[in-house]
Amino acid sequence: MPTSEARKRACKKYEQEKIDRIPLRVPRGKKAQIQERATSLNESINAYINRLINEDLAKPDT
């Protein structure tokens, strides 16, 4: 079933209000490594990167 136009608009509005985007560039071949690791942990690339960032931010400053 195709996504309705109303649903598309709602998703776009939510993303504009609640989500910040950070483009990420990695050396050629690194994306495949990241994807493999994320998949092995049953995570998307986005979830994997966000988890790593959150774990790092939770550490006390040294």
From TrEMBL:
<dbReference type="InterPro" id="IPR010985">
    <property type="entry name" value="Ribbon_hlx_hlx"/>
</dbReference>
<dbReference type="GO" id="GO:0006355">
    <property type="term" value="P:regulation of DNA-templated transcription"/>
</dbReference>
<protein>
    <submittedName>
        <fullName>Antitoxin</fullName>
    </submittedName>
</protein>
<dbReference type="InterPro" id="IPR013321">
    <property type="entry name" value="Arc_rbn_hlx_hlx"/>
</dbReference>
